[in-house]
Each structure stands twice: as C-alpha cells, then as structure tokens.
Amino acid sequence: MDTKEIKILAIESSCDETAAAVVVNGRDVRSNVISTQIPLHTLYGGVVPEIASRKHIERINQVIEQALEDADMGLEDMDAIAVTYGPGLVGALLVGVAEAKAIAFAQGLPLIGVHHIEGHISANYIENKDLEPPFLCLVVSGGHTHLVRVVDYGKYEILGRTRDDAAGEAFDKVARAIGLGYPGGPKIEKAAHEGNPQAITFTRPKVSDGVYDFSFSGLKSQVLNYINGAQMKGETINDKDIAASFQQTVIDTLCDHAALAIDEFGMDKFAIAGGVASNQTLRQAMEKMCEEKGVKFYHPSPILCTDNAAMIGAAAYYEFLAGKRDGWDLNAIPNLKLGER
Amino acid sequence: MKILGIDGSGLVASVAVVEDDNLVGEYTTGYKKTHSQTLLPMLDELSKMIELDLNQIDAIAVAAGPGSFTGLRIASATAKGIGLSLGLPIVSVPTVDAIAFNMWGNSGIICPIMDARRGQVYTGLYSFAEDGSFKVERPQCAVDFHEIAADINERGKAVTFLGDGVPVFKDLIAELITVPYRFAPAHLNRQHASSVASLGMIYYKNGECDTAAEHRPEYLRLSQAERERLEKEGKA
Q: For residue B147, what are the domain limits?
C-alpha cells in the first residue's frame, strides 16, 4: 500500500493567471495548464482586480478540464483537490477557492488550502528530485519578496521580507517610468541586456533594524529622481543603462541578503522561486554566489516560476501527507502569512 | 426532475433542492458571514438532512446576476465546480426575476429593487397572468430609481416592492410613487434559492441552459476600470 500514488488536482487563481495542474506524489507533474490574462491587463498598466476575477470565472472550468485531459485522468482518479487560498487578490482567490471546494464536495474528496508562497517554494521540488528541507529560499515576485528558511516540509521560518514594494513591483514601476510598459520584469531584463549595469550608481537599499529585510521603494524613488534630474538638466537619458543599473542594484541586494543568511545559518542548499526568479541575470548571479560558497543552487524552470498550479500541487502533497484537510468553509485570505496554519 | 438552486447575489445565502412540484429542502440565511463561509457548508448540511444523492440532480439553477460581484462569483463557481464534477448543465436565472418569482400569483406589478449603489437600483417589473404564468414586463436592468418610479407610475397599477433595496429607497418610494404600493414581508422579500430552482426548472424545460464551462455571471455592469477607460476613450 505504501507505493500508492497520491494524485492531486491543484487550482491557482490568486492574481492574473487561471491555472490547474495534476501532480502525482508532489513531484511528478502530469499536466500544468496556465491561462494568462496579461494582455488584458496591459491596457491598464497593471492587474485590475475586478477584471481578473471576471476572467477567472470565465476560464476556470476549461482550464481544469484541460489539465485533466492533458494528464489523461478524470476527477475520479484524484485523491485530493488543492487550491491557493492566499495571499493574493481576494476576488480572484475566491473564484478558485469556491470552485475547488465545490469539486471536492461533489466528488467526495479531501480539500487542501495552500499558501501561494509555499507553492512557489515547492516549485523547486518538481525538477529537483533530490531537494529536501532544510534549505534557504528566496521568493521574489510581483507581490512578494521573502527570504525563507525551509526547516521542514510545511515548516517555514521567515528571515526577511520587503517592508514596502516587492522586487517585481519595483521592476514594474521602473519599467513604467522609462516607458517600457507592463509587465515590467521581462521588459527591464531585455533592455538591461543592452545597457551598462555600472553606468549609474544607485545605492543598495538597506533596512536599519532588519538585516534580512528588503526595501525597494527607495530604490524606485532613486531611479525616478535620476530621470527627473536628467530631464531638468536637459540631458538625454539612456533607458537601457537605467534598466541595467537598476536591475543590477536589485540583484546585488538580493544576493547580499542571501549570502549573509547562508553564512549565518550554515545552509548548504539555496533555492530561488517566484516570477522574478526567471530573470536570467538574477539566476546567474545567484548561481555564481552559491558556487563561490560551495552551496548547491536550485531554481525552477521559468514556467514553474510564474504563477502556476503545479507548484500548488507540489506543496499540497506534503500537506496531504501531514494530514491537513480543510472544511467547506475555507475562505480566501488575501494577506495570509507564510507558515500560518 | 430535480434542480439544485443557489443564490449568492446579495447578503442572503441560499441553497435549495426542488423536485418537480416539491421543495425537498431549502437553507437560507441573511447573515453577515461571507458566502465563501456559508454557501457550501449550508449545501453540505442540507444534503445530509435530505439524504441528497448529487447524482440524482438534473441541473443547477444559479442566480446569475445582477448583484454583489463577489457574491455572484462565489455562487457561480460553486455551481460550475459541481457542474464540472457531475457533468450537469447550469441554468442562469436572472436574479431580479427570481426575487419577483417569490411573489407568485400576486396581482398588480411586482418590483424587486436591489441597491446597486451609485444612486442606482437593479430592478425589473413583473406580473402574473390569471393562469399563473410569469410575465416579464420590464427585463432586469440597472437604472436610477427615478426612472423605474416613473415607469411604475405610468402603468397605473398597484405595485409590490421587495428586495434589499427597499430599506434604502423607502423614503424615495413614498415621495415618488403615485400608485398604491405595498412591501412584501420578511419571508418573501429577499432571495430564495427555491425560487431560483422553480424558475430555473421552467427555463430548463424551455432549453435555456449552458454547460458548466460556458456559464458566467451576468453583472449588468462593467468593472470600474473598464468604465473609466471607455469614458476616457470616448472623450479622446
């Protein structure tokens, strides 16, 4: 009996991707369907919560049906239904939560609510079959910047978090300021390739009372001030240099914090996760830092960095093994804290 | 024929199972808890009480809107999830129609009003013919209360008001309505999933239903961001 496969249908709708996946034993992804709304929100320069919620409900059944079809399985094959219940946009989360609950109810299956960030961290398990806690993980996305010590499956210790803007949010805002548009991450990265990262000196943001905490709002202001200053003096600004210098400052800051934590806690494994983790320059910098320290470096493929349901299925598997089951009153919690149960 | 009715369009959360002309069970609450915390636990409890075999259900009728955007989506996603699981069709019942159906057989005009904020109401006008058939005199819409008041006065028939907009617009009703009017009592004046299911059964028999995948709420309103964008583009 101990060889029984645990098959989980996972659903994710916390922001602007409607996603569903079938994951077996937490690490074997049989399907991973993502329906993105990015082109729609580009019209507004960012995610509009009400529009996101409306799109989720229009797409969710098709996405789930596709995930089951791709996995060549039916709901009757599943052992549990998992869903992201926070953090995220409440209206968006509620679509996935209500849908998942109804499927679990109608199918007579256990329901497992999953923390979105725990999902991002767990994305690393999928392609790295050898990765097991404890390890250090840096989660960087449009909504989150967390430095987390993964003590055990389902057991997280937050070392640092952003005090204001998330790293990805700073990318979006800077991209807007230099006219690159939304979504900022990939656009800054592309522009930065052709720019000089040493061209402009931005100060690395520090938080005085928290060595592992981040603050990217000040850095964003530095960039805006630089642009305003240059415009006042009638100087032409080089968007590519700004993008490259800004990106380098963010990466240096993230790298410094990670390196410090690796040393202090004597970690021998380090992973990155979240949408910004698909940034190649960030990945290379982290890889180099880990190499120098003799620490094993892990990262998910870009498709598993972005919001997806496979990562929710991965996290849910360990919750399933730990016996976590949610009731039919499971609610969306927009500001759910990491490690909260 | 067995229909599962769901309504999450307003403060009320309601689920019901109607089999032909028998209301097997209904669970309705008008309490401040979110629909995410109430609807499915209520359906679970109701199912146990009436020993419901979900596989015996023929269709799900859901109050599809207008109403609270989030409430509509919770009800719709609940219907869609069950529909996906069991391969059931969904009947999208206009929310205002279902509220009016509470007043089955009533003489005169039935006017549900829901507070739509921004000075508007979600409303519609309805009546019942002598044979009991349901007539939509004015399809549900989002309008200024003055507009629906003028329409009611013009028709010159007695009117029954109901819905969660009544407490909000009571003064305006007294001020504007020139025909005899009355207010429905507590047991009839809000959403009932049994009405959604009964009316849904009629629509379903007329072939008006969607697959669970196709079903989506009918908000009667654009999102604020879309509205502002269109206004801006209109001006530009």
A: 103-183
A219 touches chain B (CB under 8 A): no
CATH code, residues A132-300? 3.30.420.40
pLDDT at A183: 83
Instruction: Give the helix/strand (H/E) hosting A39.
Output: helix A38-42
Disruptive mutation site among B33, B60, B73, B232 for chain A (greatest number of A CBs within 10 Å): B73
- B120-129 pLDDT per residue, tens: 999 999 999 9
| Overall fold of domain A7-123+305-321 | Nucleotidyltransferase; domain 5 (3.30.420)
What mean pLDDT, rounded, does chain A reach?
Answer: 95
- Partner B contacted by A268 (CB < 8 A): no
Total of domains in chain B: 2
Is B234 inside any structural domain?
Answer: no
ipTM above 0.95, yes or no: yes
Establish if B38 belongs to a structural domain: yes
Residues B107 and B172 in one domain: yes
Chain A residues in contact with B54 (beta carbon < 8 A): 106
The reply to whether residue A103 touches residue B229, judged by beta carbons under 8 angstroms, is no
What's the predicted TM-score (pTM) here?
0.95
CB of A69 within 8 Å of any CB in chain B? no
Asked whether residue B109 falls in the same domain as residue B217, the answer is: no
Which pLDDT value is given to residue B30? Answer: 96
Instruction: Indicate the pLDDT class of residue A46, thresholds 50, 70 and 90.
Output: confident
- The pair of structure tokens assigned to B204 is 């379903």
List CB contacts of B115: < 8 A, sequence separation 6 or more.
B121, B164, B165, B168, B169
Residue A339 has pLDDT above 90, yes or no: no
CB contact under 8 A, A329 and B37: yes
